[in-house]
Structures are given as structure tokens and as C-alpha cells.
User: What shape does this take?
Amino acid sequence: MRLASVALVVRDYDEAIGYFVDALGFALVEDIDLGDGKRWVRVAPPGGGASLLLARAVGSEQADALGRAAGGRVAFFLEVDDFHAAYDRMRARGVAFQEEPRCESYGWVVVFADLYGNRWDLIGTRA
Assistant: This one.
């Protein structure tokens, strides 16, 4: 058993693909037209693991959920092998970091918000 994908509510498929691919460096895994404006879109970090299923908000209830994946808490944890290189690359690509990087007992960490306001930890774990 494995976790294959996690749904993330987005405003627009192409806007979200642009952010996750261009700013974060994710790969576009699938983009399948399902008709009636609906698509099956998955993006994933290059190291593998679970993908994000980008789900376009339909209706006001889903639109109101944009950016609130964990009620204001950090919702997603992105681990990288070279923390400082990833941080510098993402910052140069316009990622909205909410603090300065800090060293914790488990490694380097910094919080950033995605284009909708969902909070993420960028983590460089200790060897």
C-alpha cells in the first residue's frame, strides 16, 4: 500500500501547473482532458513519492477552500537533498518564503506559501 496522490484545490489548471513546474521544479506527470472543462492533472517532485492531483475548484464552497488545505497550518512537507541550493533556486523563481531558513534538530527548514496561500515546509534533513 502507498499514498499515490493528494488532491489540492486550485483556481486554474494552467496557473497551478505553471507554479508547481516553473517555481518549485515539479514534473508534470499527467494532464488528461476529461471533457466539460475538467482535467486529470498530476504534478510531482522529481525525487518521486506521492503526486499532487490539481483539482480545479467548482462552486463557491471549493473556491472558498483555496489556500486553506490545513486551516492555516503547514500542510505539505517538501524534502530536498541540498536545502540551500533548493532554497536559492526557489527564491530566485519567486516563491513566497514567510521566514528566514532556520536549523532545527531534524535539519534545515523554511516555510513558504504556494500561489494560493497553502503553507509548505521546505526541509533539508540531516544525513
Q: What stands out?
A: Residues 33 and 39 are 5 Å apart (CA to CA). The longest strand covers residues 27-35. The beta strands are 5-10, 27-35, 38-44, 51-56, 74-80, 96-97, 102-104, 107-113, 119-125. The helical segments are 13-23, 59-64, 83-92.
